[in-house]
Amino acid sequence: MRDYLFISDYRQNETCRESFNQLAMQVFQLDFRKWYNQGFWTDDYICYSYMDKDRIIANASINKMVVTAYGKEYKALQIGTVMTHPDYRQQGLSAKLMHHIIDQYEREYDFLYLFANDTVLDFYPKFGFEKVQESRFFLNTAELTKHPRQKSALRKLDGSNEADLALMQEFAHERIPVSTRLGIKNNPSLLMFYFLLAFPDEVYYVEEEDVIVLFSQTDRHLNIFDIISKRPFDVEQVVSHLIHADTNTIQFHFIPDNDNQNIVSARITEPHDTLFVRPFLFDDQQPILFPLTSHA
Question: What pTM did the predictor assign?
């Protein structure tokens, strides 16, 4: 391997930051600029990279998390944005970055985790990560539509609007975990990424419930990606403001805090992203689903 420069924690370095973004756009079609130009790249997100001259050629990032699960809190580290420029692959750069991150953080955190696509499923077990099967959660709306409730007007939020952006920031900083079964706390930076970049057209404020909901409706299927609230909420009450007469099923992209027998779970057999954990600390008899908006 050629002698490349190893660098990290360069969010204040404009040249490195822009080069990182160019690589992310090339590999993942992700443009971070709107996120970091507005000050949402914080110390919770740190890049570890190799540089050839003035260009970032490989990267693995860490995102510091607090994971709440079944009455316990865990200090967790999520690894993400693992990428190598096509001209520099097959040189072991990603492996070196992974070893560096594990060596630096494994004694400081309760566990490390990441999400991987199906092209690299054999890569992460080499570093002691265990593949974990997550679950999906669905609700048939038949019972809800039998007892319709007064709906609150939904206000679509626009990240380019100053007042809407301030509301998003307020909720990002003050939110409670979306679920007591498995949730994330104290990570406003990542949530702002989802507000501004991942779901810019799916952010709505439900005034009556005082919650922000990320959701989309496709045909008769409602996807609820996240419910952001500053206090405990009734998930069915929130859902009642989102469904239409033709809504048939709802999929929650988190574990809903509700004992409604109509909410069913099923193991994900063909995930878009596969969860890997090191070490695995959870009860494998309990369903696992990290909230979608916790994926870094």
Answer: 0.92
CB 68 within 8 Å of CB 177: yes
10 Å Cβ neighbour count for 273?
A: 15
Output the CA torsion sign for 139, 144, 145, 149: negative
pLDDT tens digits for range 174-212: 999 999 999 999 899 999 999 999 999 999 999 999 999
3-class DSSP state of 101: helix
Coil vs helix vs strand at 182: coil
The class of domain 137-267 in CATH terms is alpha beta
Q: Taking Cα atoms as reference points, which of 287, 276, 286 lies closest to residue 111?
A: 276
Fold category of 5-134+269-294 in CATH: Aminopeptidase (3.40.630)
Q: Which helix (H) or strand (E) holds 62?
A: strand 55-69
Q: What is the DSSP letter of 152?
A: P
Domain boundaries, the chain: 5-134+269-294, 137-267
Are the C-beta atoms of residues 62 and 207 closer than 8 Å to each other?
A: no
- What tokens were used for 28? 């993942």
Of 254, 238, 264, nearest to 144 by C-alpha is 238
Give, in degrees to the nearest 5, the angle at Cα 112 between 270 and 138.
Answer: 35
Residue 212 contacts residue 192 (beta carbons within 8 Å): no
CB 225 within 8 A of CB 215: yes
User: Which tokens sit at 219?
Assistant: 């045909």
Residue 150 is given by DSSP the state P
